[in-house]
Amino acid sequence: AVRAAAGGRPIVACIVGAESGVTFADKLSLELGVRSNGIFPAGDRRNKSVQQKAVKAAGLRAVREALGTTWAEVADFVEQEPMPIVVKPVESCGSDGVKLCKTKEEAR
């Protein structure tokens, strides 16, 4: 469909217009055979937990983190961390959804 929409003109790049399109653009650029960031082998490169694991694997200092979708999955981590802590969705951009929590109750 993309090639048809190009009407015979050469496709030389796939440039994403917003953070939410990064994963799709990575896949599309590979499919189109143009310069690409490719598919990150450790998972979605927009995922903040995936990013931190890649930083650690490279031997660099990274943040301590806990990943979970329920409080039970992160409660032990929060219990051991000094306050304040930062809570951030794994697939947000910039400061979207970021919360600086001064108490465990705020984090919950």
Contiguous runs where pLDDT drops below 50 for at least 5 residues: none
- Reading the helices and strands in chain order gives HHHHEEH
Total DSSP helices: 5
End-to-end Cα distance, whole Å, is 45 Å
Strand order of the largest sheet: 1-2
Amount of helix: 25-40%
How much strand content do the residues show?
5-15%
Q: What's the shape?
A: elongated
SS-derived structural category: mainly alpha
Gyration radius over CA? 19 Å
| Arithmetic mean pLDDT | 90
Number of strands: 2
Largest sheet: 2 strands, antiparallel
Please give the structural blueprint.
Layout: H1 2-6, H2 22-32, H3 48-57, H4 71-80, E1 85-87, E2 99-101, H5 104-107
Antiparallel strand pairs: 1-2
Which tags fit this structure?
mainly alpha; two-stranded antiparallel ribbon; elongated; 6% strand; 108 residues
Question: How would you characterize this protein structure?
Answer:
This protein is 37% helix and 6% strand. It has a two-stranded antiparallel ribbon. The model has no long low-confidence stretch (mean pLDDT 90). The chain has 108 residues and is mainly alpha-helical. It has helices at residues 2-6, 22-32, 48-57, 71-80, 104-107, and strands at 85-87, 99-101.
